[in-house]
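Model: You mentioned two targets. I'll fold them one after the other.
Researcher: Yes, keep them separate.
Model: Target one:
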Amino acid sequence: MNKIIAAAAAALCAVSLTACSGGNEPAPETSGVYTEISVSEEPASDAETEASAAESETEAEAEKSAVSCADIAAAVISSVELPSMAEVGADRVAMYLDLEVPEGCDFSMYICGSGGFADEVFVINAADMDIEAVKSAAEKRIESRIKDFEGYNPDEVDKLNDYFTKEKDGYFMYAVTCDNSVCESIFDEYVK
């Protein structure tokens, strides 16, 4: 009787193995690499949807904050005819503008290297600053430059009187160039 039970058990195992292997096809070999698949059958909750939307907004803000003042200034300098321009570092800004730029603040300033022309470009991300103080410093700079050039090079006074200035989303720019429309289009292109 034990032989009959053993034979029946063996036959049952054979039928089970055949059913699992999909018929007569051999079972696929594995190389020890397993892939875990997780399937969520529940729809996302309102909180998860809101979190995803907030994450997308944060990414958009990060993209926006990725606007570099140096890139804006460089675009102006390469697009507008300017005399030799010299970059003004953070340690020298106070020599030109009545403004203290906080450490780590993103800004870019260029002036005419020879001093013979009034051209200059100043761009700052003033989101953490008093924007009125920044505007006031720019206006004082322009007034001072007008006085400098009145008797020296009157043609430059026209550029100074018609200087470009714009503020948007914490960014501020002023530029003294011969082409304010190009300055404005560049600013608008970078600060959207």
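Model: Target two:
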Amino acid sequence: MAKAITSEEVLAKEYHTWLRLERGYSPNTVEGYEMDLDKLRAYAKDHHLDVVHLDFDALQEFIFETFKTVKSEATQARVLAGIHSWFRFLLYKDYIDQDPSELLESPKKSKHLPTVLSLEEVNRMMQAIDLSSNEGHRNRAMMEMLYGSGLRVSELVNLRLSRMYLDEHYLLIEGKGSKQRLVPVSPVAEEWFGYWMQERSTWPVKPEARDLAFINRYGRPLTRAMVFTIVRRLCEEAGINKTVSPHTLRHSFATHLLQNGADLRVIQQLLGHEDLATTEIYTHLDVADLRQAILQCHPANKS
């Protein structure tokens, strides 16, 4: 028999704790799932329904209405994942006896090849950084970390000085689901980070940002949005006509490693992917690379 519920507010707090502690999701994932729950609560309120006891038909109607404006397959899949998570929580905590979302189907995501920069384009972006500006050395160090170690933007802004082992040339990165991995840092990135640390010592640093590797001009934690802005501005200044984000540098890191002979499973480990298939999407090769591999490696071409 289902338990009685005190209030939606109390339930929402329980859900947050469950996502963060019991499921071990990252703050970004928790935020996304809670945004999905807010949409579902708004739908339930508009239709005079209880968000805890929605049935399958109501959920289908919610999805139909939501997907009229949400066209991205990835976002649609995320919304469905959020719904599944909410009812899994309710079932796990005995607030409901049956999960009405278990028959909902996720859209099949198309495997689009990611945008990748050439080495020459990466170098142009690096050279576009104004080192005479207050943030010049910081921006160059961030770019070298993104491209040289394949970090996600969330991993970059949350990178802590206490988890940087530069004497051993490694970073301890906390990735998705709070999973940790050791990532090598390149000598070039170390050099530019050293220049940034000299500059950083002259900046006012707020208490909450003292252990953060990268901060903004006011000494506060750097936001993901600011890193996006910096990368896109550098792309424009370098004259690169591609849609570029911090993740593009991660794609480029993986692709360039693969093109230069790195093993796919090594790249999987560096990126922190659980599934090798995910790594294969990030590290695609163009047709010329595939043809060259056949010419060099297939026995029929070695006679």
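Researcher: Noted. Anything on target two?
Model: The first strand starts at residue 164 and ends at 165.
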